[in-house]
Protein 1
Amino acid sequence: MFDILIKKGMVFDGTGAPPVKADIGIKGDLIIAVGDLDDSNAVDVINASGLSVAPGFIDAHTHDDASLIIRPDMEAKLSQGVTTVICGNCGISGAPYNLTCEPSGLLRLVFKSEDFVAKDFKSYMAKVEEAKPSVNSAFFTGHTTLRMNAMGKNLNRAATKKEIDVMKEELELALCQGSIGLSTGLFYEPANAAPTAEIVELAKVLESYGGIYATHMRDEADFVVESVEEAIKIGSEAKVPIIISHHKCQGQHNHGKSIVTLEAMAKARKTQSIAVDIYPYAASSTVLNEVSVLRAEKTIVTWSDPYPEVSGRDLKSIAAEFGVSKLDAMKKLLPGGAIYFMMDEGDIERIMTSNNAMIGSDGLPEDSHPHPRLWGTFPRVLGHYARDRQVMPMHDAVNRMTGLSAKNFHLAGRGVLKPGFFADVTIFNHDTIIDLATFERPKQKSLGIEQVIVNGKTAWIGGKCVGAGQGRVLKRRVGEK
Ligand code: ZN
Ligand code: CU
């Protein structure tokens, strides 16, 4: 007798193996049987005939840190079949938050207010648990946050030995309290003033804890190759696995450079562990900044504190209305955010199907007019790229959002449908799954996600959140490598 029995679905087990027709038996929060369970019964029998059954998707790159607390039903994620979100990315984490300066623009964008941060991960994770989010979460410690704690107001410089020691101590405590590693946002102020050696020193702390280094690199355009080399160097000198966040090549004259970056990674993989994550769109999104505005073919403003009414509009038409240049218009809109069209489909497909590439949305949940990746990433990869464009088999796509990610982030007992694993399950319709979120109307639920189970309880069914907050904080396990 099971609590839940999922019958006759095509089971993608998450390992990258082709699907097989099988039943799945769940008891409590665990999968306890996979196979022909025809003679068994359950409290809740789900007929999955004609449907696909996969491990719950793991969003490898998010900024859901505060969102887990602000809107714990996590509709943008559950509606895509996502059951776990990796937070604390791009150098920005809500803990340990002991700022000695004004918060940076990106930190403000992710956290909005100081209600959603905490002095250490112990209290931060307690806050998340108390909010009872519907999905599981794991957290990186942000280098930018550490810098703003340790370095006072003058951040436009390398950290001193003494300041690095303070950051190391904070990082070590964070790892002990369950953070999974260190993230950087070297493209952004104030992290861009940090030399490689500063990051290597900090990353060295990770080794004995089995921590991971994830990086939004210093440059994703003219110097993308050099930036990949810097990340590889940090990983090799600190002897830690690296994850290159939202890998992309920005700007028309850099299109195609992923051939070079992926080759560099393949070569380095002989001696170290390297993964990347990617979102399936040819436009990026972040705070309004001069470099990106100059590089993009088109810029859509997503939010602006002084001019909230321009949200969703093309910067060019805003500039015309103001009667100023695009750059001057941008300056008037600060602080604000934007979507930048500057990538190439060829690079996207090459990176997405490359060795050890995972799917991560990089969605910005507090944006008033967010990039559609927030609501559409996973169904878009499955429906558009795997089924319609056939850039990879469906079981390969599923692996890149489940088993592969669980392995790279050391999420024990997740990402695979096997007895003994946690019952995070997404049931989807292979024929209809597709994203509906667009650049014009970004807050749209996708089609084809039939039912989502988190830790053995149904969290999404009939196009609605029904969970009572079954998500857990996934802590780096002590002594785990
Ligand atoms: Zn980033
Ligand atoms: Cu990010």
Note: Residues 59-274+345-371 form a domain with the TIM Barrel fold (CATH 3.20.20.140).
Protein 2
Amino acid sequence: MNKEIAAKINNILKNYNIKGKCIKIEENHTGNINSTYVVTILEDSGILRRYIIQKINTTVFKDPNILMHNIENVTLHLEKELKSLNDTTHKSLHLIRTKDDDIYCHVTETDDRDYYRVYDYIENAISYDMVKSPDIAYKVGQAFGNFQMLLRDFPIFSLEETIPGFHDTPARYAKLENDIFKDFKKRADDIGQEFYTIYRNKNRYPKIINALRSNRIPWRVTHNDTKVNNVMMDKDTNEFLAVIDLDTVMPGSMLFDYGDGIRSTAATAFENETDLSKVHLDLELFEAYTDGFLSEMAPCITESEVSLMGESIRIITLELAIRFLDDYICGDIYFKVDPKRTRHNLERAQNQLALAKDIEKNMPTIENFIKECYKKHKGKSRKII
Ligand code: GN1
Ligand code: MG
């Protein structure tokens, strides 16, 4: 770990009642937004304890205060629910408070906009960037379904929007059109085919957000970033332990979480894969994830939500393609990119479009399975785990 980062981490730790010597700092590179470090402390008692230290990306999350209050309220609620269910297997992220009893710290020695938070490290856990086994896909689906279930009584609109319009797909599309029109970075000539596919699908984009806004489907507390690696699983048993990355927990539709969960968990290739012949939707993984998700959620969702589940997979995949393409057009200002890849965001968009094409091909099978799976689960009373 370079000296500059070590000095920064030690500076942050000064704000906390974390006693002992920092003996190891590892950067975790999986996220596209925040910077994450795993820090090992040797306590005076000889015990090794690990923490997650995260720098909040304030370009993306403009107001760290509302972001952190959402997270605090949600994690406290999750802890309370798990306790009342006597559930000792599953966990919630746990924020460490500063010496001043705050939920994040502002490191003024560095840049004015450097905000950090500290979580307990979840031990003996692993997260997957890609899934090959249906058993794990089932558990990931179950984890995100369970997360929404545990938050079913949470006062939805006490949560602030950390990124307004995060899954407002038509607004994302309109922004892309507008940015292409302005073309400040002179990149619009590179994206004819990709934009055409996105344009061709434009009538689909309002389907979820309009259903929500007209109350045809209910608002719920949703995670909004249900990437497969946002579930920590037990290394030994593969049981899910906790859902992480709570920055985008906001009022939303369960369809955002379901659609994004399938997009991420059932894809046969990483989002960074450029060999598009490798990019497909694995139907077995799709089925397993759906089964896990509905085993938690089916008893309390509405027929209108179910009728949009298949479409949500396609919409959220196209939405991410729109977001990657828009970031390419804007000069890579949102998603972290590999400096050696000048077209990284364009390639990510191409990858998502390849996935969307395969989803489209399989739509009848997808719709049919969702219907049957919902039928199987809806009568059951919810299993409390
Ligand atoms: C970002 O931070 P990370 O890597 O979990 C993004 C998601 C995208 C995802 C695509 C706040 O998630 O919306 O689906 O990249 N998060 C935010 O990899 O924009
Ligand atoms: Mg995230």
Note: The two ends are 40 Å apart (CA to CA).
Protein 3
Amino acid sequence: MISRLWAKLGKSSPKAEMPQLDKVPDHVAIIMDGNGRWAKDRGLPRIAGHHTGMKAVKRVVREADRLGVKYLTLYAFSTENWKRPKDEVDFLMRLPQQFLEIELEELIENNVQVRMMGIKSDLPSYTIDALEEAMERTADNTGLVLNFALNYGSRKEMIDAIQAIAGDVADGRLTPDQIDEQLMSERLLSRDIPDPDLLIRTSGELRLSNFMLWQLAYSELWFTDVYWPEFNEAHFQEAVLQYQSRKRRFGGL
Ligand code: IPE
Ligand code: IPE
Ligand code: MG
């Protein structure tokens, strides 16, 4: 429609800037925030925002895959989110099951591998069962790794790692001088995943909210005011474009 209009005006259509496909971040992590405010603005209950947020998850998974991102980590529920009203927590716990019921077949078709990063033991069985089924059925897939951070908290993750390391030292399996960055990384829940190259947070909040504090040490950060349920392919492209314009120095020159 718009291109026809431009043709009529005798101009070539304006080409939107597209990410360079050879410089796409390997690992994008997203703090999907603003569901509640999105709903409130529309006079809807907060859970309506969470429900609509699933559509944004679908869009972003497809777009990340299309661009050649290798790992996509989505912060879906933090260890602090248990403080919310029970009804909301219950609804959030049902979402993985709902999402996978609709999307798992397509994820399998697209060679996506589903993973989960978080404390499984506190999750209801229907949540964990749905995720485990998805992880099992996609375990051999070699495409995009879709990593759900669910009941995830970075401080707890680090404390658990340190306790395990301390146990190994106490039992003589490790000496203190063997503790280095690599060992620590291998003890975290993200052990099989490289550190994020790009972190996106939606909804205008400028904080990490206990998300991947160790792993984000040198990630590029990108914030947008857009609420998660409205986040779309163009926003994702904008973030990747920004990432591509950054110069990562890792402390060097
Ligand atoms: C993000 O949206 C989803 C979760 C944290 C589970 P919020 O529910 O935090 O929405 P806001 O920040 O209250 O708008
Ligand atoms: C972070 O969002 C957690 C998730 C997106 C799952 P919150 O909405 O819980 O973060 P705060 O409370 O605003 O820091
Ligand atoms: Mg929030």
Note: DSSP finds eight helices and six strands in the chain.
